[in-house]
Amino acid sequence: MTVLTREDISNNKPAKKLTQILKKKAGRNNRGVITCRHRGGGSKRQYRLVDFKQDKFDIPATVKEIEYDPNRTASIALIVFADGEKRYILAPIGLKVGDQIINANKCELKTGNRLQLKNIPTGFNIYNVELKLFSGGQIVRSAGTSAQIIGRDGDKIQVKLPSQSVILVDKNCRATIGIVSNPDHINVKIGKAGRTRWLGRRPKVRGKAMNPCDHPHGGGEGGSSIGMKYPKTPWGAHALGVKTRKIRKYSNQRIVKGRKKKK
């Protein structure tokens, strides 16, 4: 089992006005039907209201604290604007208490500053990237990830995502310079079943261990195989090696180059 030391994380309680109650859904939809299996329990959490849009322009802000957020893999930073307003943002690697950051159309190219893609040079690492104007950051938000600007195509910017796919984004959309904090998250080993339960994940039962009425893999004597050409989901669909992306998905028109297959 491994744990993160979190030496740069503040031990103070989160800002009360920037948190709200987070009710557990246990994988159920509005009708109470389980739509995501193996969910339930877990530690109580307060939801931190993270500002992904960052719509306060040309006003400098000072980093007051770097905090832990139980709802996401990355750390968050509590920033205080010159007019006294406080907000949470995603913290990049290297951002420290006391640093000054700003959100503007054009500003200094340093970690934590947010500006339009057309004003960021090719090769810079960026995160929390907008896909639609003024919609706020929607992609590249998990721990240790970053995208790169690799080219320009008229009014569009070519952005290389962590998946190695390349997409086109409007040049006036915004992104923050840097790499998302907590890059060691990927190296954490859970180590024990209880720690998984704290995260709200319940045990998963193999289909092969079930009865035929409960799963297509069920039944048989002893440790018999699944008895079919390809593995299936509990509802009979192909479980492996099948593309799940919709053919007519609206964002397909953005993709210049598809993601690489994992070896």
Top keywords for this entry?
single chain; 263 residues; mainly beta; OB fold (Dihydrolipoamide Acetyltransferase, E2P); 4-stranded antiparallel β-sheet; 15 strands
Give a description of the structure.
The chain is mainly beta and 263 residues long. The chain has one helix at residues 193-198; strands spanning 19-21, 46-48, 61-67, 76-81, 86-90, 100-101, 114-116, 125-127, 129-130, 137-139, 147-153, 156-160, 166-170, 174-177, 255-257. Strands 7-14-8-11-12-13-15 form a seven-stranded antiparallel β-sheet, with no helix packed on it. It is globular.
Q: Quick recap of the structure?
A:
With 263 residues, this protein is mostly beta strands. It has 1 helix and 15 strands, in the order E-E-E-E-E-E-E-E-E-E-E-E-E-E-H-E.
Q: Largest beta sheet, briefly?
A: 7 strands, antiparallel
Overall average pLDDT: 91
Sheet-strand content, in percent, reads 15-25%
Give the proportion of residues in helices.
Answer: under 10%
Taken together, the total number of domains comes to 2
Describe the SSE topology:
Blueprint: E1 19-21, E2 46-48, E3 61-67, E4 76-81, E5 86-90, E6 100-101, E7 114-116, E8 125-127, E9 129-130, E10 137-139, E11 147-153, E12 156-160, E13 166-170, E14 174-177, H1 193-198, E15 255-257
Antiparallel strand pairs: 1-2, 3-4, 3-6, 4-5, 7-14, 8-11, 8-14, 9-10, 11-12, 12-13, 13-15
